[in-house]
C-alpha cells in the first residue's frame, strides 16, 4: 500500500534481491532484525480521522465485501508518515479484547517482506488497523490489469520468492496461518519490492470468511471443514504461482487438467515469450502442482518452496523498480512539477507572499462547504460568530496575527459553520507567530473539511519546513501539485 511509512534503518550493506540455497537459512534473521520500525501502538480515532482527512472518499484505496464492510484508506500521520488504515464495519470484531490481542500479536512482526502493522484503534464500535502504506499497487494490478507493460519474468520470479520469504518469516514467528492469500494481498513498496499485506494475518472476525475469493480457488479441505491450516496457505500459494506464470487467474482444477495434458502453452503468459527456458517454466509448473495437491499432507512446506525458488532467480542485482520500469519513490520530483504562486511561496517559506495570496483569494474556496444552520442560530449567537469572523478578517488584513488567531478561534469554537479558509488563515497566523505545530494541525483540519484542496497541502508543506522536515514538506507539495494538475486537466 513507498513511501515507506517511516524511516527505516537497515543494517545490510545492500538490498537483498535474491537468495541462494546456502543463504536461505539467513533469510528470517536478516529480515527480522534488520528492519526497524516504530513499536506497535494504539491510535485514537481522532488521530486516524485527521490522518485520512475525515475518511475521505478520495483516500479510499480498496473496498471489500458486497457492501464494502471493510474499507482501506491511505493517510498521513501528523502530515508526515504515510499509512494505510483499514476500517472494519461495526459488526466486525465484537469483542474488543480479541481484536486488541490479535492486533498486538501481528504488530510484533517486523519484516521487509511484509507491509507491517504499525498499530490499531479500538474505540467504542470502531475497529481500525494501521499499516505501512505501499504506493505501487497490487500484484493483481500488475499481472491482470497492466497498462503499459507486462511484468517481466525475473520480476515474477522475485515476487514468488519474496512471498515465500514472507510466509517463512511469519511461520518462524508463530503466525503460519494466512487468510485468503491472493494477488490482491501482495503490494509493492517505494522501491517496487513486493510485500505481503499484514491484514491477512489477523484471525477471522464475525463478518468475514477465511476465503472471500471465488470457491473455485478455495482449498478443498476448507470446503470440507471450514478451517484454515498451514497447508491451506500452501494451496493458495500454488494458485498464485499459476497467476504469475499465466498472467491470468486460472481456477486450479482447470490448471491441473492442462498440466496433466501437458498443455503448458495455455498455462504461460504470451507476453513472456522468449523470456524463460522450458526448464524454468516446467519447474514452476511442477511446484504449483505440488502445492495444489488434493491431500494437504502431500504439499511442500514453506522452507521447501523457498529452496526450490531461490535457484531460479535471475537478474538478482537489478533493483525491482528498474525491472518494473517505475520511477523510484513513485511520484515525480518536485522540480519536474509546475508550481503555482502559492505552492512556490510555501516551498520558499515566504510568509509575506502567502499572506498576499490568501488575502487576494478570499473565501472563494469555501464555496460548496456544507454549513447547516438551525433557525435558532440566526440569533445573537450567530451574529457574534459572524462578528468574530469579521474581526478576524480585519486583523488578518492588517497583519495583526495574534488578534486574528483569537478571533478565528472564537469562530471555530462555536462550531456552527465550517470554513477551510479560516483554518488556512489561522494556520498562516500561527506560522507568523512561530507556532509551526499549531499551524500544521490547522492545515490538517482544513484537509478534513476539504480533502482535495491543494492550499491545505501547500500550507502543510510550509508548516513542515518550519519544523525542519524537508522530505515530508516535499511530499506535501507534490500532493498539492498533483491535485492541482488533475483538477485543471479535468480528471
UniProtKB/TrEMBL annotation:
InterPro entries: BSK, Kinase-like_dom_sf, Prot_kinase_dom, Ser-Thr/Tyr_kinase_cat_dom, TPR-like_helical_dom_sf, TPR_BSK1_C. Coiled coil: none annotated. It is a lipid-anchor. It holds the Pfam family TPR_BSK1_C. Its main location: membrane. GO terms for molecular function: ATP binding; protein serine/threonine kinase activity. It catalyses: L-threonyl-[protein] + ATP = O-phospho-L-threonyl-[protein] + ADP + H(+); L-seryl-[protein] + ATP = O-phospho-L-seryl-[protein] + ADP + H(+). Keywords: ATP-binding, Cell membrane, Kinase, Lipoprotein, Membrane, Myristate, Nucleotide-binding, Serine/threonine-protein kinase, Transferase. PROSITE patterns: PROTEIN_KINASE_DOM. Its EC number is 2.7.11.1. GO terms for cellular component: plasma membrane. Residues 58-313 form the Protein kinase domain. It is an enzyme of class 2 (transferase). It is found in: Cell membrane. PANTHER family: SERINE/THREONINE-PROTEIN KINASE BSK5 (PTHR45863), SERINE_THREONINE-PROTEIN KINASE BSK3 (PTHR45863:SF47). This is non-specific serine/threonine protein kinase.
Amino acid at each position: 500500500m513507498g513511501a515507506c511509512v517511516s524511516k527505516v534503518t537497515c543494517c545490510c550493506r545492500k538490498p537483498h534481491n535474491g537468495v541462494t540455497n546456502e543463504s536461505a537459512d539467513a533469510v528470517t534473521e536478516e529480515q527480522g532484525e534488520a528492519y526497524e520500525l516504530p513499536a506497535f501502538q494504539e491510535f485514537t480515532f481522532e488521530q486516524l480521522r485527521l490522518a485520512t482527512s475525515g475518511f475521505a472518499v478520495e483516500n479510499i484505496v480498496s473496498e471489500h465485501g458486497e457492501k464494502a464492510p471493510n474499507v482501506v484508506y491511505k493517510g498521513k500521520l501528523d502530515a508526515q508518515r504515510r499509512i494505510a488504515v483499514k476500517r472494519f464495519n461495526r459488526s466486525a470484531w465484537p469483542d474488543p479484547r480479541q481484536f486488541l490481542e490479535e492486533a498486538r500479536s501481528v504488530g510484533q512482526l517486523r519484516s521487509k517482506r511484509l507491509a507491517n502493522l504499525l498499530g490499531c484503534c479500538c474505540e467504542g464500535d470502531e475497529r481500525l488497523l494501521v499499516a505501512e502504506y505501499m504506493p505501487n499497487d497490487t500484484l493483481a494490478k500488475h499481472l491482470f490489469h497492466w497498462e503499459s507493460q507486462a511484468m517481466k519474468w525475473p520480476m515474477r520470479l522475485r515476487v514468488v520468492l519474496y512471498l515465500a520469504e514472507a510466509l517463512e518469516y511469519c511461520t518462524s514467528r508463530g503466525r503460519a496461518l494466512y487468510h485468503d492469500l491472493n494477488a490482491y494481498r501482495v503490494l509493492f513498496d517505494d522501491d517496487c519490492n513486493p510485500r505481503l499485506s499484514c491484514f491477512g494475518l489477523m484471525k477471522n472476525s464475525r463478518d468475514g470468511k477465511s476465503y472471500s475469493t471465488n470457491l473455485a480457488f478455495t482449498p478443498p479441505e476448507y470446503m470440507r471443514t471450514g478451517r484454515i491450516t498451514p497447508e491451506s496457505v500452501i494451496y493458495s500459494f500454488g494458485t498464485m504461482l499459476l497467476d504469475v506464470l499465466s498472467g491470468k487467474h486460472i481456477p486450479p482444477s482447470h490448471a491441473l487438467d492442462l498440466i496433466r495434458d501437458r498443455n503448458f502453452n495455455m498455462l504461460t503468459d504470451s507476453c513472456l515469450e522468449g523470456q524463460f527456458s522450458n526448464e524454468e517454466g516446467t519447474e514452476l509448473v511442477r511446484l504449483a502442482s505440488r502445492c495444489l495437491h488434493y491431500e494437504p499432507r502431500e504439499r511442500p512446506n514453506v522452507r521447501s518452496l523457498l529452496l526450490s525458488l531461490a535457484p531460479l532467480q535471475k537478474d538478482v542485482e537489478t533493483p525491482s523498480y528498474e525491472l518494473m520500469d517505475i520511477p523510484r519513490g513513485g511520484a515525480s520530483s518536485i522540480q519536474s512539477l509546475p508550481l503555482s504562486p502559492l505552492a512556490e511561496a510555501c516551498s520558499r517559506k515566504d510568509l509575506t507572499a502567502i499572506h498576499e495570496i490568501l488575502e487576494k483569494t478570499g473565501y472563494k474556496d469555501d464555496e460548496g462547504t456544507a454549513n447547516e444552520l438551525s433557525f435558532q442560530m440566526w440569533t445573537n449567537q450567530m451574529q457574534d460568530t459572524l462578528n468574530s469572523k469579521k474581526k478576524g478578517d480585519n486583523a488578518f488584513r492588517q497583519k495583526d496575527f495574534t488578534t486574528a488567531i483569537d478571533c478565528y478561534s472564537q469562530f471555530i469554537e462555536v462550531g456552527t459553520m465550517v470554513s477551510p479558509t479560516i483554518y488556512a488563515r489561522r494556520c498562516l497566523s500561527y506560522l507568523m507567530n512561530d507556532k509551526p505545530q499549531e499551524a500544521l494541525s490547522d492545515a490538517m483540519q482544513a484537509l478534513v473539511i476539504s480533502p482535495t484542496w491543494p492550499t491545505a497541502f501547500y500550507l502543510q508543506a510550509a508548516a513542515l519546513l518550519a519544523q525542519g522536515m524537508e522530505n515530508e514538506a516535499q511530499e506535501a507539495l507534490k500532493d498539492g501539485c498533483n491535485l492541482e494538475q488533475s483538477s485543471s486537466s479535468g480528471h
